[in-house]
Amino acid sequence: MPATNEQLSKYEKIEAIVKGFKLPAAAYKRAMTLLNQELNNGLKSQKSNATVLSMFPTFVRSTPDGSEKGEFLALDLGGTNFRVLLVRLNGQEIDIQSKTYLIPQTIMLGTGTQLFDHIAECIGKFVAEHDLISHQLPLGFTFSFPCHQEGLAKAKLSHWTKGFRCEGVVGEDICQLLHEALKRRTNCKVEIVAVVNDAVGTLMSAAHGDRNCEIGIILGTGCNACYMERLDNVHTWNKEEKDFQPKQVIINTEWGAFGDNGCLDFMRTEFDREVDTFSVNPSKQTHEKMISGMYMGEIVRLVLERLTHDQLLFRSVDRECALFERGRFYTKYVSEIESDTDEFFRHTKQVLDDMQVENYTTEDCKIVKYVCTLVSARAAFLAAAGLSTLINRLNKQDMTIAVDGSLYRFHPRFHNLMCLKIKELVKPGLKFRLSLSHDGSGKGAALTAAVSLRLRNLKNVEENGFTQPEMVSVKA
Ligand code: ADP
Ligand code: MG
């Protein structure tokens, strides 16, 4: 059926509003060039204020080689759930038991002491429930906030993100805070061996079964990536340590902050700016806000609000309805809406009912889905551009990228969209694979602890010709 003039002009008006999300390949290529510059800036020794990416050396020097063994505790803080895990490693056999605990909002916004006491109490309970009180347990701590690491088990919080704001923690060593809380609140024998963020855990977990895996990315509440860099390129690394093999270290890019100096403004829309203005951290995490699950639903909601306001969508909507409430349109709705493949729009209608929109038409459903596809595709393409930058940089024939996070896991098109874009953006001939990493923050943290015990041993043998007994992996 040919479109009427009225419809045509309506579609033109909609296009004018959403066109900022439809970026040409050249825009993503420009973002890649800029990102590569920022990666280099962040690795320079003389850090200037112009440095946007933290590029933290993580002190993780090797991915697992499969020989890791023993019984480990892991902690996962900084995601949606706080978990304590018991991880038993034996070659490729891995047994994980875990329990999720709640962190009440009052603690998320309370003092650091309250937070770490709460964590220690949860560990104490977990260890008691698993009959491990007398066991010597090395612990890998997944702490998914930007930290300046001074050692594998020494990490100073740079700033809070993702809704946490506990007083007295910024600038402090979170291992020390946890260590003290464990002493105060429990009687278990836990040694904190490694702190990693979720991106590093994800990489370590996937690398356990795949030697080609050297990049990790998180697409969940936040967005971040890490990769294995040659020490020669890491000018912030202590010289003496350079002689100790292996000559590489995993870098936590903290690329969520890419664009915080304005360099991505050319690809931001008015909706991105509004999301930023009303966030808890205005003008921070620019790149993350265009990609991750914490913000995608809200971007979609703002576009729908604008279209409604301009009378291009929904005939009559109550001003009080949920569609006009900040934060009320969840990113999981985007996945649900995009999973509709026929003209019945079953999921879309459910979401619109949930948003208290009345009297919507099939055409409205189409427009809502169209907006979702544009916003999610831009996010997937931007993540792909970031990964392509890293793939080109590492320049290996075959590269596996470990991916974790609910956005990637559950969005029906994210994986395919990312693959499509990466193929377009990487150097010809380089092969890649996106691999969903399982339990990066549990298994990955335990593996990091295990690898570090293995390397500690190696270093002792190299330097002193002996193996220190307490460095041997602990087994019940
Ligand atoms: P975290 O990153 O906090 O460890 P997740 O990986 O589970 O946790 O990511 C949580 C984020 O994923 C939230 O922002 C949420 O909006 C988003 N999310 C949850 N379910 C879905 C889904 N089905 N589709 C897309 N995004 C989702
Ligand atoms: Mg997570």
Explain what the structure shows.
The protein is α/β, with parallel strands linked by helices and 476 residues long. The protein has a domain at 57-209 and 439-472: 2-Layer Sandwich (Nucleotidyltransferase, domain 5), CATH 3.30.420. It is built from 15 helices and 13 strands. The strands form 3 sheets. It has a 6-stranded mixed sheet, sandwiched between helices. A hairpin with a 3-residue loop joins strand 9 (213-219) and strand 10. It is globular, with a radius of gyration of 24 Å. It starts with a helix and ends in a 12-residue tail after the last helix. Residues 468-476 have low confidence and may be disordered. The structure holds adenosine-5'-diphosphate (ADP) and magnesium ion. It catalyses: D-glucose + ATP = D-glucose 6-phosphate + ADP + H(+); D-fructose + ATP = D-fructose 6-phosphate + ADP + H(+); a D-hexose + ATP = a D-hexose 6-phosphate + ADP + H(+). InterPro entries: ATPase_NBD, Hexokinase, Hexokinase_C, Hexokinase_N. This is Phosphotransferase. Residues 214-451 form the Hexokinase C-terminal domain.
Concise synopsis of the structure shown:
The protein has helices at 5-18, 25-43, 105-108, 112-129, 174-185, 198-207, 270-277, 286-291, 293-309, 331-338, 346-354, 362-394, 406-410, 414-425, 440-464, and strands at 56-57, 69-77, 82-90, 93-101, 136-143, 147-151, 154-157, 189-196, 213-219, 223-230, 248-252, 398-404, 431-436. The chain has 476 residues and is an alpha/beta fold. The strands form three sheets. The chain has a six-stranded mixed β-sheet with strand order 1-11-10-9-12-13, with helices on both faces.
